[in-house]
Write a structure and sequence with these properties.
Layout (H helix, E strand, L loop, with lengths): L9 H15 L6 H14 L4 H21 L10 H12 L6 H20 L7 H4 L16 H8 L1 H6 L7 H21 L3 H6 L5 E2 L4 E5 L10 E5 L3 H13 L19 H14 L8 H14 L4 H8 L4 H7 L5 H11 L4
Helix pairs in contact: 1-2, 2-3, 3-5, 9-11, 9-13, 14-15
């Protein structure tokens, strides 16, 4: 069994207790035991313990709860028709987003493949399932140019209210947060990618940053370049580097004690300055990413170039989920391309 830190976590306690029971009884029959075995195997393969492991646990908990409700406790009871019934019911539930539904499909396929490889299923149900698709219905409205400008300059507004003995500390936060905001707005980078940048990833001469893309699948490029060759991004970054705390931590963005920032910290920073800028709707890092990609499309950037800059797996993602045109813009395009114009 793989040893994990932080034994206070509820899901971890359940995982370890189930795995200990499996070690004493090698005959795995329950769905709950199979789920815990899958998570343990993923951790042994090198997946993140408290991101991937936790996500798989809580996602598959939906499936195990459904099985328990219909008195399906044994692996041997699983069948193709039963799984199709589960997915059909899950697809019709409004509380499950299309993203969660997609994650649910991936997790259950992994579970079925593991059960087949262990000889606990006579056939590989994962290959036979034609799972229904839940379409993305959420519409993202990008920020306007005026709101983007207000957000990009919000740290300067906040500076007016910081004074007294803590002024130097406040100046650190403002300088760091200004650099983060400008990077998010000017490159469309993900919050997780911001926190994964190290000092070694910076190339100040070429004015570029090597970004480590999310995921570890073979079809996703592990790295891509983003460009900071504009004063609005480059100057705040240089000012931040001058006051960045020195220490063994090599992460680019840290707190005053040289401890790396995490993605939730990036979200808090964006929300904080959105309030200061008096933007009267919810603003979060991924909305800035949507906005950036929409601007690329509106300015006629080639779809392949946009896909490369955004780090998308598929060009369809760039075209379908991140491009937002108004009716007037669509009408202008129609007028320009109409043969009678």
């Amino acid at each position: 069994m793989t040893k994990l830190p932080n034994e206070q976590l509820k899901w971890y306690k359940h995982l370890t207790s189930t795995l200990e029971a499996i070690e004493t009884n090698t005959h795995i029959v329950s769905i709950n035991e199979a789920i815990c075995l899958l998570i343990d195997s993923l951790i042994k393969q090198g997946f993140q313990k408290f991101t991937t492991g936790r996500d798989y646990y809580y996602t598959l908990k939906v499936f195990s709860s459904w099985c328990r409700e219909f008195k399906i406790n044994l692996v041997s009871q699983l069948s193709k028709n039963l799984l199709l019934d589960f997915f059909e019911q899950a697809k019709n539930k409004k509380k499950y987003s299309s993203y969660f539904f997609k994650e649910l499909k991936v997790c259950i396929r992994k579970l079925l493949q593991l059960l087949f490889s262990k000889g606990l299923l006579k056939e590989n149900l994962a290959n036979e399932l034609k799972i229904p698709t839940k379409m993305q219905t959420k519409e993202y409205i990008p920020l306007s140019s005026s709101d983007l400008e207000k957000l990009a300059n919000a740290p300067f507004v906040a500076m007016k209210y910081y004074c007294g003995p803590w002024k130097n500390l406040y100046n650190f936060f403002i300088t760091r947060d200004l650099s983060i905001l400008r990077l998010l707005i000017g490159t469309g980078i993900r919050s997780s990618e911001v926190t994964s940048i190290s000092l070694n990833d910076l190339d100040l001469e070429a004015k570029s940053i090597t970004v480590h893309s999310k995921g570890n699948q073979f079809y996703i490029k592990p790295q891509r370049l983003i460009f900071i060759d504009t004063p609005a991004i480059f100057i705040p970054l240089k000012r931040y580097l001058e006051i960045r705390p020195r220490g063994p931590n090599n992460s680019l963005y840290t707190n005053p004690y040289n401890i790396s920032l995490r993605p939730p910290s990036i979200t808090r920073i964006v929300k904080k300055y959105a309030r200061i800028a008096k933007i009267n709707f919810r603003v979060y890092p991924h909305l800035l990413r949507h906005t950036y990609c929409s601007i690329l499309a509106q300015r006629g950037v080639d779809p392949y170039s946009a896909q490369t800059l955004m780090g998308h797996r598929k060009a369809e993602t760039t075209l379908h989920f991140y491009t937002h045109f108004t009716h007037d813009e669509i009408k202008d395009d129609w007028l320009q391309s109409n043969p009678f114009s």
